[in-house]
Amino acid sequence: MSLFDNNARNYDAILIVSFGGPEAPDDVMPFLDNVLAGLRVPPPVKERIAQRYHRFGGISPINRHTREFIAALERELAASGPVLPVYWGNRNWHPMLGDTLARMAKDGITNAIAYVTSTFSSYSGCRKYREDLHAAVDGLDGAPHIDKLRLGYNHPGFIEAMADRLRDAFSRIPPAKPQPALLFTAHSLPRSMAGACDYVDQLREACSLAAEMAGAGRWKLVYQSQNASYGEPWLGPDISEALESVRAADQTDVVVAPIGFVCDHMEVVLDLDVEAAEKADDLGLNMVRAGTVGTHPAYVRMVRDLIVERMTPDPERPALGTRPPNHDFCPVDCCFSGRPGEPRSALCGAELT
Question: What's the pTM?
Fold first, then answer.
């Protein structure tokens, strides 16, 4: 089966699929039970993770930002079409994906297109969501058919939005000063997981494209939110090490751009706005954090354009740089976890696995 869909699909709904996050102190532990299900995480480690959320009143900003994105997408669809209802389901917190799929079935939705709020290939950002979609429809009476939009890491809309965020960040550096260092960040992954997907190559391509469009000079891809307590090597260098390298090079200003995240959530707020900012201050660095693409009009238009793409026969598939547009259907061996054992069944693939 081809990995590209050249048929004109007739969808009757859009499904936004996101990670989810707690919105009150009492949500934190149940939320972490969902996030850490199946992992051998000792209770003291889980409690340390919980304290990260309690530091902010038990509230992650991700759900608020997802609501804002959905509102922006609905406005874009109302203005330019297609006018379709938008549903929202999370992996780890309410509205839970299973509850949303049940509501869609009750509403008579038969054919939906899903947008996963993750721009790069990895088990955590792709296949795990596909597994969750399979689990949500498995055994559900009247479950809708679901397709998944292709990843947009090299789509002109994503790159334009990220480049605009970079320009804004650079504008906050005094113009008389030398160009600051530019550090792009993404969520670190276990190396075994990263080796089973194109995560790093896609990130490097997106960083290069965004920096070039923004008129930036040299840049470096670094990682954040590492959790090496899981017992295996993770991708590096870490943002903290990278800041030390910037200071060691006698630079005084640095722009940090979380290209691996489409909106601000706990990893962005705590790891960058608090911990990386404190590290930069200790080093005597002026750190400016670029915004995530969030509700940038070019990013919102990209999602609308990707929907139209799947509803159009033999569509053009815009993509910048040296890599081709990402596939519409995931291949059988797409984005495995890197852990031993048989993969779980997943939707939206070239064939069910």
Answer: 0.96
- The 3-class secondary structure across the chain, one letter per residue, is CCCCCCCCCCCCEEEEEECCCCECHHHHHHHHHHHCCCCCCCHHHHHHHHHHHHCCCCECCHHHHHHHHHHHHHHHHHHHCCCCCEEEEECCCCCEHHHHHHHHHHCCCCEEEEEECCCCCCHHHHHHHHHHHHHHHCCCCCCCEEEECCCCCCCHHHHHHHHHHHHHHHHCCCCCCCCCEEEEEEECCEHHHHCCCCHHHHHHHHHHHHHHHHCCCCCEEEEECCCHHHCCCECCCEHHHHHHHHHHCCCCEEEEECCCCCCCCHHHHHHHHHHHHHHHHHHCCEEEECCCCCCCHHHHHHHHHHHHHHCCCCCCCCCCCCCCCCCCCECCCCCCCCCCCCCCCCCCECCCC
Residue 352 has pLDDT above 50, yes or no: no
pLDDT at 353: 38
Please answer whether residues 325 and 32 qualify as being in contact, where contact means their C-beta atoms are separated by less than 8 angstroms.
no
Strand partners, 270: none
Q: To the nearest whole percent, how much of the chain has pLDDT over 70?
A: 97
